[in-house]
Design goal:
The protein is an alpha+beta fold. The protein is built from 5 helices and 6 strands, in the order H-H-E-E-H-E-H-E-E-E-H. Helix 3 packs parallel to helix 4. The termini are far apart. The chain is 39% helix and 12% strand. A hairpin with a 4-residue loop joins strand 5 and strand 6. The strands form 2 sheets. The chain has a 3-stranded mixed sheet. The chain has a 3-stranded antiparallel sheet with strand order 4-5-6, covered by helices on one side. The chain has a domain of 112 residues: Aldehyde Oxidoreductase, domain 4 (2-Layer Sandwich).
Length: 185
């Protein structure tokens, strides 16, 4: 019996689908995690903790090229937090960071170039969710809110709130697909 490539992939996909039970959606898991830990985890790179510290998963090896400094700086800039408030981790057991070959790769001095936009978008998603949560709680337009030093501010009412106080509310929001990035300047 001859099986076409398409037939094989269809059968394989069906088998994998039947054998994989998530139990809950990503949104449900994000909300449950936030309620249990107080931590906002909108994506695999960035998390905002209850104490307003920011976790950054570094999926490249630090071999003297400044990868950890680059990751921390990119997230700090996009989230409007001090670099000192960034906690870096190397999630060596997380499969979502592996390449299609099943390996974690670092080489060719391309780590920062490869991660530049994905990491900015990851941090911008977290910032967007935090701002939306604050604006909703204050019943003000999102456009009237801004971020600074790990806080969301509403200048017209002189209100501000630390990121850590917004994590649970922000986790209940949808993760934006195309969050607004900070201007280059």
């Amino acid at each position: 019996m001859t099986v076409s490539r398409r037939g094989f992939l269809t059968a394989l996909g069906g088998a994998l689908t039947l054998g994989f039970d998530v139990g809950c959606t990503g949104a449900q898991a994000r909300v449950r995690h936030a309620r249990e830990t107080g931590e906002l985890t909108p994506n695999m790179y960035v998390s905002v903790k209850r104490d307003s510290r920011v976790g950054v998963a570094v999926n490249k090896a630090e071999i003297g090229q400044g990868v950890t400094a680059a990751f921390a700086t990119l997230v700090a800039e996009e989230l409007d937090v001090a670099v000192e408030s960034i906690d870096l981790s190397f999630p060596d057991s997380r499969p979502e960071f592996k390449t299609s070959s099943g390996m974690y790769l670092t080489g060719g001095s391309t780590s920062t170039k490869e991660i530049f936009m994905p990491l900015r978008r990851a941090a911008a998603s977290a910032r967007s969710m935090l701002v939306s949560a604050a604006a909703t709680s204050w019943s003000v337009p999102i456009a009237e809110c801004r971020t600074e030093a790990g806080r969301v501010l509403h200048d017209a009412s002189s209100r501000s709130v630390a990121y850590g106080d917004l994590t649970i509310a922000a986790a209940q929001l949808s993760v934006p697909e195309s969050p607004p990035l900070k201007p280059r300047g």
